[in-house]
């Protein structure tokens, strides 16, 4: 009869069993974390790809809006029958209605920037201050009930010297900001630069932005046929809101000549300097709003007309 020799099992001491269990648990947790991370990374990559695709589609639609804006201005020129004036009844003065596109919608607006005060006109070509433009800008600030120091601060931002205007701000002010900076000492490339000025808070910006432009061409002037009521009020001392309401009713599709505007009966006792005024427009802002998958994007293009040629001066996505 054979005796069975019992098999010997090696039992780990209690401390070693605990350590092995912890290692096994750690490996399991690590594997789970890596698996989840891989899934999340894949999802993130998919989301990034989706965002990039939508962004690219939105940009292409914005470019289409730009082409639409240029075609409108060209059609207006072709249909004007030689008319030497631009007004708010021209073909270009319309909105692109909300239009369905693949994956979303697009709408657009074309704005005449020559109906606004050109901030770059504050300086002459030789860098000297344009006194007439400065007077009109100061009056515009009064009309809009804005901080009058904005005028001096903008002059310091534009001019080449480092000597501050009486209520201005030069490098010494911008150096003490976080992050530090300097005055630009050059023309504005976009009106959003105004937000850097010390006196330009959010409320001032909202009231001013729709009445000013930053056109590089300083010789064009304000188109009195498309100018806002506030800009018209700023043209000379003594002009009242009642006068401008009458002017806007009379101008309709536009005055055919500058003299027709200046000789209006309401201006009988008002001395309006004709310099810096025009009945033509050369600078436009095309604004596109695109909605895709519930996300809204805005793009703007600044266009300048020179004869039958159009130049894109600025193109950007508007960050809300």
Automatic annotation (TrEMBL):
The keyword Cell inner membrane applies. It is found in: Cell inner membrane. One of its GO terms (biological process) is protein secretion. Its main location: membrane. The chain crosses the membrane at residues 20-39. Keywords: Cell inner membrane, Cell membrane, Membrane, Protein transport, Transmembrane, Transmembrane helix, Transport. Residues 115-216 form the T2SS protein K first SAM-like domain. It holds the Pfam family T2SSK_1st. Residues 222-274 form the T2SS protein K second SAM-like domain. GO terms for cellular component: plasma membrane. Belongs to the GSP K family. This is General secretion pathway protein K. It comes from hydrothermal vent metagenome.
